[in-house]
Write a structure and sequence with these properties.
Blueprint (H helix, E strand, L loop, with lengths): L1 E5 H12 L13 E7 L3 E7 L3 E8 L2 E4 L1 E6 H10 L5 E7 L2 E6 L2 E8 L14 E6 H11 L14 E8 L3 E8 L3 E8 L10 E4 H11 L6 E6 L3 E6 L5 E6 L18 E5 L1 H11 L9 E7 L2 E8 L3 E8 L1 E2 L4 E6 H8 L7 E5 L6 E4 L6 E5 L5
Helix pairs in contact: 1-2, 5-6
Length: about 375
């Protein structure tokens, strides 16, 4: 194959596909990107880690010779990154080598045959629907911080998507690590009725979120079955991301969402976040908890550390219920507060041992639950 591509175009596509490729691979071909040049003037790049696969098509300036070859993804990306702006990059593969030329630069890279390159077999994907890219990006941003990183509870290592028939049919996304829960609800898209409950893995979520930034004003097509999901972004010269789904059962998280918490605390999320951040400065690994003492129209935040001393800060708030004290993990509380983009955040509390419901208001599509800590 031989093709010439604008450096900016090549770099953008390689930045997308190379991030799917793991840095350390026991199977050499998995370190490579498959490059296919077709006589119609387009070049297709493809990378996989056997669980996640990405395909992106880009226009070439010229395709002199069609064909396909695989070459180190990270190496080619690093080369493209260091080439001068505006240069034309020539990729010429023959006899087990690829020659990369741009201006006065010339690189000769080893290749592996395309026949060895693995492809994820998608099978039948019966459920198909579209979601605006901006909505999908918001859904990911509001939930993914709560995805568990604990490998033993692998079924929590992703975002759980499921449809529910409420007053109006909805699609819900949820993530939890056992200490906190994030849930985001949107109207059920046309075509999503009857879709299986699926858990989209953390790596797929991360790669998808990066890709969405380039196509925020378009719609994303989702095709899925009980074991695979495919996201198609950006139309003809776009990206197709295919992932295996987590094979497990997500717990019934609705059981931990409190419905009877009768103590309502309302305050400014920004000043609350900054107050928690300040008093948590003296917290250590052992004392990650920040204590909240609730009184009439004020909250006193405090941290006590045997090594570093104590810190306290008062914050004005709207609170009319009986006073009590409750402790939270400072980082978890900050993660949730950073998701609230308004002037008011509501905390619905019960007592020092019960989970707390946190949201912007009762109309907000995002809802959070945080388990307290003993302080």
């Amino acid at each position: 194959m031989k093709a010439t591509i604008e450096r900016a175009t090549l770099l953008r596509c390689l930045s997308h596909v190379q991030s799917v490729v793991e840095r350390r691979n026991t199977i050499p071909i998995l370190s490579n990107v498959l490059i296919e040049a077709s006589p119609d003037g387009s070049v297709r790049l493809m990378a996989t880690d056997l669980d996640l696969q990405i395909i992106e098509t880009m226009p070439a300036r010229e395709v002199e010779r069609g064909g396909a070859i695989t070459v180190s993804a990270h190496l080619l990306f690093d080369i493209a990154r260091k080439l001068p702006d505006g240069s034309q990059v020539s990729l010429d593969a023959a006899d087990g080598r690829m020659v990369v030329k741009a201006g006065r630069s010339r690189f000769q890279l080893p290749t592996l045959p395309r026949d060895d390159f693995p492809v994820i077999v998608e099978g039948d994907l019966p459920t198909s629907f579209e979601v605006p890219a901006r909505v999908l990006a918001e859904l990911i941003d509001r939930t993914r911080f709560a995805i568990s990183t604990e490998e033993t509870r692998y079924y929590l290592n992703g975002i759980f998507l499921h449809v529910a028939d409420e007053a109006t049919p909805v699609l819900k996304a949820a993530a939890t690590d056992g200490h906190r829960l994030a849930r985001y609800t949107i109207a059920r898209p046309d075509g999503a009725e009857g879709m299986p409950d699926v858990i989209v893995p953390r790596k797929c979520v991360g790669e998808l979120r990066k890709l969405l930034d380039d196509v925020l004003d378009t719609a994303v097509l989702l095709d899925l079955s009980a074991s695979k999901v495919r996201f198609t972004l950006g139309g003809e010269h776009g990206v197709v991301l295919t992932s295996k789904l987590i094979d497990g059962t997500f717990p019934d998280y609705s059981r931990v969402i409190p419905t009877g918490n009768d103590k309502l605390l309302r305050l400014d999320p920004r000043s609350f976040f900054e107050g928690v951040d300040r008093v948590a400065t003296i917290a250590t690994e052992k004392t990650r908890a920040v204590k909240m003492a609730l009184e009439n129209d004020k909250v006193t935040l405090s941290v006590t550390s045997p090594e570093n001393g104590t810190a306290a800060e008062e914050i004005a708030a709207e609170y009319r219920a009986a006073g009590f004290e409750i402790g939270f993990n400072a980082n978890y509380l900050k993660d949730i507060l950073s998701q609230i983009d308004g002037d008011i955040v509501e905390l619905h509390l019960a007592d020092a041992g019960a989970p707390t419901l946190i949201r912007k208001d009762d109309k907000s599509p995002a809802l959070y639950v945080l388990m307290p800590m003993r302080v």
